[in-house]
Write a structure and sequence with these properties.
With about 120 residues, this protein is mainly alpha-helical. It contains four helices and no strands.
Length: about 120
């Protein structure tokens, strides 16, 4: 097999500058998540959210360290934003391409708004 020059671009050791840029971008967010996670770990947690489930499951398993928990938190946060964005975009697309359904949704929103 003959490797072309462009193939080497995808090798991990060829992308150190990209990794460093990503690390500089993500580290401040990791710091914020770490502080939030430490506060939540100190509280009696009765919340029902993804972070609570991660923390509770950690008590029953191999006990992830704080950095592992921050990694999990970051993954769920990023994944949640992406899926929410896609869901909202598809909902708006389908509503704008289906006027009858859009009108029905608009009626419901208007009724809820008037009730307040």
């Amino acid at each position: 097999m003959v490797f072309k020059e462009s193939t080497t671009f995808n090798l991990p050791w060829q992308r150190r500058s990209e990794k460093e840029t990503l690390r500089k971008t993500v580290n401040p967010m990791r710091d914020v998540l770490r502080v939030h996670l430490q506060k939540r770990l100190q509280e009696t947690d009765s919340a029902v959210d993804i972070l609570s489930y991660i923390m509770r499951s950690n008590q029953c398993s191999d006990s992830l360290n704080l950095e592992d928990l921050v990694d999990e938190y970051l993954v769920f946060l990023a994944a949640g934003m992406e899926t929410t964005a896609i869901t909202m975009a598809m909902t708006i697309f389908y509503l704008t391409t289906n006027p009858r359904v859009y009108a029905k949704v608009q009626e419901e929103v208007d009724a809820c708004s008037r009730a307040r």
